[in-house]
Every structure is written in structure tokens, then in C-alpha cells.
Amino acid sequence: MNDDCLMQQDRNFLWHPFTQMHDYAHRDLLLVDRAQGIRLYDRQGREYFDTISSWWCIVHGHSHPTMQHYVREQLARLDQVLLAGISHEPAIRLAAKLVELTPPGLSKVFYSDNGSTACEVAVKMSLQYWQQSGQPQRRELVALERGYHGDTIGTMSLGGVPEFHQAFAHLMFPSHRLPPPNCYRCPAGQLPPLKIAGGAGAGLATGEADSPAPPSAAGAPDRDEPFGVAGEVLRCDCQCLEPLAQLLAAEGERIAALILEPRILAAGGMIIYPATWLRRAAELTRSYGVHLIFDEVAVGFGRSGTMFALESAGVTPDFLCLSKGLTGGMLPMAVTMTSDEIYQAFYGEYGENRTFFHGHTFSGNPLAAAAALGSLAVFAQEQTMAGLPAKMAHLDRCLERFKELPWVGDLRRLGMIAALELVEDRATKRPYPASRRVGWPIFLAGLEQGLLLRPLGNIVYLWLPLSTTREEISTITEKMWQVLSNPANIAGA
Ligand SMILES: *Cc1c(COP(=O)(O)O)cnc(C)c1O
């Protein structure tokens, strides 16, 4: 079928996710024909850098031969079988690998098939656990404003991105919402910037993830974690944790769980926050016996610079949700990992009614499990994690000049993720109004440059595959400079 015909049929029959279809009434969508490494190709052979890892899931690049090999072998053997009361080797081997990779304490793996369900599973397990463990009053849930856990009704109820979910407000269950640790727009509002001599270079990263933090001495406040905002190094004592402390003091024994995205609130605006905040939030939550649900659906599998973002804070949650990068982005799959203690509360004679009645048709799909095993094999083969620090440092160097642009209010990076927050007024940090749709001309100009950029509101970001080479980082950031330094691409600049 030729392109025109395909596009016509797309208009006739396809409804795309997170897309205003009217935008394409007189404009064709990018029609991707094939992909190799970090490049997508259209049918004319034009190439586009996949700077957002195809919605944050591609890890080792597209079409990795090792992963293809794993999936092909599996395809010849077993395509799909239910996981209820049945098992198969790829699901077993992957579960064992995940337990080995994650911190001690996470010893059980529950499969599902997307990030939203991974989070819903954690929430349901937590609630049912408390009912079966003598604390049925623990029924309330806590989440962060600007947090994002998916688009199902349950995860929307715990979401903090009203732009996406407002229309369904009447369906959502009530839950507590806390202000996020947003360093650029610090809610405590009283952190004097403190320039540290010789701190240049450290300025770009908001709390490095490459070195795992030492476990903090019990009770000792970590006042000293330096981290950077717009190139300035700050010292922070996490005053923005006060609302959590107050909520726990008032209602701690009624709360079942706190759910959050470790180190970066991604869909809510690429809000990167220090490991100290995460560590202290975890300690505080734990001290009230409340479950911690870490949603690493987006950042798991290396994106933050460590295999899991939780490593930077040295904390282990009660539930860990993983999905996007789990199969290296090749096939849909998700897991909710938890502890033996949680698992045991569901274990008993059938008649005791402790069973976790939850499952999805494709839970633990053998092909997806094979892809995930293939991806983990590539991590070992290519020593992916060991290569990241040099790439991250190079990314910092390449991004440095973007700070000169008057419309760049903040520049932040965590691992292979970097975000530029565009503002109408740098001094007051006044954001561009949503009606300006700042991201749209940038998206279009990006395509012209051969870049797949997909700004989130006023946030232009890179979410690079871990396989991106230093050379590719140079090329991508140069092309991004061509887009962002041109005032014609900045609405209203
Ligand atoms: C994408 C995402 C989800 C939802 O995953 P889906 O597979 O799209 O349902 C949940 N949590 C986080 C942090 C995400 O980024």
C-alpha cells in the first residue's frame, strides 16, 4: 500500500493515543517503517532519532539481535499460555532474575502486562494485605501531586496530572495528595541558592544517581546533599516533607500505602528530586507502618543511571512496579514485586479466602518474558550500566549551552533523562500558558531536524536509550539546539 493510501486509511480507521486527531486533518503522521538502534526510518528512508525511547521503553535500541534471538527461539516453542495455576520456564527464569537484581526483601514477582496494571496490583495487594492482617482500618492511600501512575480509573485516582484526568473526577476514589519535591519551583520557597566554589559541572545534575547513597544514620537529618537547579548548587533539608510528616502524624494508622515515582515525576513534568527526599520520605512512611509503593514503571532498568532509581537512596519499598523498560521495549509486560511478608498474608487454605483474585489474560506472556530475559542478557553482555557515567557526563557538557537561551528556565538531568523547562519569564519562572502550546512547534521542528521530540507541555526532554553513543548524544543535542535556539520555534518568544 502506498503512503497516501495508508494515511487515508489511518484517518478513516485509527484513533491514536494522547493525540488530538484534528492536528492531522491536513498533516500526515510520521509513518514509521522500520527501526534500528536509536533511529526510526520512514518509507522514504528518512531517519529520526528516537530521543524519547518510543515512550520511554526502548533500552538497548530497536531490533537488538540478542533480544530478537531470544524472542524467536521462544516463538518456536511456546507463544502464550495462561499463568493461573500453570507455569512456564521464561516466566520462572525472569522472576528469579528480577529477585536477584532488585534489593533483598523483594522476593515475589506478580506479572501483568502494562504499567497501569502493575500499580493497580500493588494498591490492591496492599489494601487486601491490611484486611487480612488485622488492620482493616488501613484503607487510605497517599500519592503526590504531579505524580502519574497510568490511565485506568484506579491509577487516575492516584494521579496528580489533572490535565489528563479531569473529565473523570467524579469516578475517582478519594485519596490524599501531597505536594511534590519540585526543586525548581521549591514549594518550601526558602532555599537560598548557595554557589559552591568549584561546583561547576555538578550543577547540571539534580542529585547524581551514579553513586548509591550510603544508608543514613538513624534519625540524623541529611542536611547536606548538594544538588543543582538551573546550574546552581543548593543545599536542602527537604522542608517539603512537612506535609507528609503532618499527614502521617494525624492519620498514619488509617493509611495503607504511599505510592510515588522514585527520583523523577516523569509524566507530571520531568520533575527530578534528590535521593535525600526519597530516603527521608521512606523512613517517615515506614515509621508509621505504612506501605511504600515505588512506581519505577518509567525509570526502572537503568534510565536513572542506576539499574533502579531506588538504589540512589538505598531504600527498599514494599512494592516495586516495573514495566516500560522491562522487555527492553520490545513487548508489553509488567511486574509488581513484593516481599515474602506480603505474600504470606495471602497464603492459606482455599477456604480461608485469602487468594489474590487478580490476573490478566497475558500475565507473564512467554514471548514478553523471553524479550525481558534477552534484555537482561544484553545488560550483562554489553556492560550497559558501566558505560553510562561517561555518557551522562557528555550529555551534561552538550546541554550546557542551552542555559543561555532566555526561554530556558531550568535544565535538569537524571541518568539518561534530561529536561529543559521553558518559561515565559525567567526571573519569575512564569510558565507559558498551556494555551500557547509551546511544545507543538518544537515537535514539528524536531521532525524536520530528524528528531522525535515530544515535549510534555512546556518541558522539552530527552529520554535516551541507554545504548545511545556519545557521538549520537552530540548529534542529537546539536539538532535540538537547531530547534530550540531558533525563536521562530518558540511560541511567543
Ligand atoms: C507510563 C507510566 C505508567 C503507566 O504505564 P502504561 O503501560 O502506559 O499503563 C505508570 N507509571 C509511570 C511512572 C509511567 O511512566
Write the topology of this structure.
Elements: H1 3-13, E1 32-36, E2 39-42, E3 47-49, H2 53-56, H3 65-75, H4 89-101, E4 108-112, H5 115-131, E5 140-144, H6 153-157, H7 162-165, E6 176-178, E7 226-229, E8 232-235, H8 242-251, E9 255-260, E10 264-265, E11 271-272, H9 275-287, E12 291-295, E13 319-322, E14 334-338, H10 340-344, H11 366-382, H12 384-399, E15 408-414, E16 417-425, E17 430-431, H13 439-449, E18 459-463, H14 470-484
Parallel strand pairs: 5-6, 5-9, 9-12, 12-13
Antiparallel strand pairs: 1-2, 2-3, 4-14, 7-8, 10-11, 13-14, 15-16, 16-17, 16-18
Round the mean pLDDT to the nearest integer and report it. 91
Radius of gyration: 22 Å
Q: Please identify which CATH superfamily of the largest domain we are dealing with.
A: Type I PLP-dependent aspartate aminotransferase-like (Major domain)
* CATH class wording of the largest domain: Alpha Beta
Bound molecules: pyridoxal-5'-phosphate
The low-confidence parts are 190-232
- Count of the separate structural domains: 2
Helix tally?
14
For the largest beta-sheet, the strand count, sense and barrel status come to: 7 strands, mixed
Beta content comes to: 15-25%
Total beta strand runs: 18
- Distance linking N and C termini: 42 Å
Q: What name is given to the CATH topology of the largest domain?
A: Aspartate Aminotransferase, domain 2
Binding site for pyridoxal 5'-phosphate: 115-116, 295, 360-361
Family: Belongs to the class-III pyridoxal-phosphate-dependent aminotransferase family. BioA subfamily.
Pathway: Cofactor biosynthesis; biotin biosynthesis; 7,8-diaminononanoate from 8-amino-7-oxononanoate (SAM route): step 1/1
Protein name: Adenosylmethionine-8-amino-7-oxononanoate aminotransferase
